[in-house]
Amino acid sequence: MRSSNPSARTDRSEAPNSSTTALRQIGVPLAQIQLILSLEPEAAAAQIGAYWSGAEADHAAHRDLAGYLVDRLTGKRNVMYEVKVRDIPARSLLCLLRHASNQQEVWGLGKEVIDMLKAQPPPRVDGVAGAAFLIYYGEVNQDSDGPVEFCWPVPQDLAGQLAASFPALTLRTEPAHQEACIHLGQDPQTAAQSQLVDESFRTWAAEQQRQPSDLPVRVTLLTTAAPVTDASSRAGSDFALPLRDRAGAA
Q1: pLDDT band at 32 (very low <50, low <70, confident <90, very high)
Q2: What is the pTM of this model?
Q3: CA distance linking residue 7 with residue 141, whole number of Å
């Protein structure tokens, strides 16, 4: 039955146009606007909130990056992030490599692996060494699609058996090494933040006379570390730069 209330029809027809204008004004990309408008109000509100949190984090990172550049050009020392070093033992990894052009696709990659592992949970490696991590082999944006690799550490003595149980995942190993790491917390990661991290690593490495190893930079998902505690569930993530040892080995 058609509605006899013309104003109700007008409100519904005008709402998408009004929402589109408002979303464009706060910088939401058109593709994401289309997604938001297709959602129920509660889900749409969550998407807008998540977008704006990311936008605020990106603005803050751009401000900090501008301050860093000004300080560097005027001869001031300014390390944007604290850098810590940790030891990582040799470990076996179950991995999945995918091309991704945005962060939603990156998180989709992680969800794909975690869903596989949930079906038959493998034994865990305790501590940060057992946390899952992402390796970016290239930038993730509209002009570049990575690729990105999601890595899940597993006990070395069970690695072959576990790899046979998950044929979609690739088994590989990493040697023991030290990592320089910068804790990011739970804030969304932005391009400006990544630039700040890179500058902080460069400054720290020059001061400490340390060199990166041949292993790629990774984002460690600290929330996946075992055992799960209230603290680990709020730990967020960090950037980790594998280091050569002081004798020069990779």
Answers
A1: confident
A2: 0.69
A3: 43
Say which CATH class 84-243 falls into: alpha beta
How far is the C-alpha of 39 from the C-alpha of 47, rounded, in Å?
9
Long-range CB contacts (within 8 A, 24+) of 58-65:
58/188, 58/190, 58/191, 58/192, 58/193, 61/190, 61/192, 61/193, 61/195, 61/196, 62/192, 64/192, 64/196, 65/192, 65/195, 65/196, 65/199
Please state, in angstroms and as integers, the Cα–Cα distance from residue 95 to each residue in 10, 83, 219, following that order: 52, 27, 14
Q: What is the DSSP string of 78-142?
A: ---S--EEEEE--EEEEEEEE--SSHHHHHHHHHHHHHHHHHSPPP--BBGGGS-EEEESS-EET
Domain range annotation of the chain: 6-73, 84-243
DSSP H helices in 141-190: 159-165
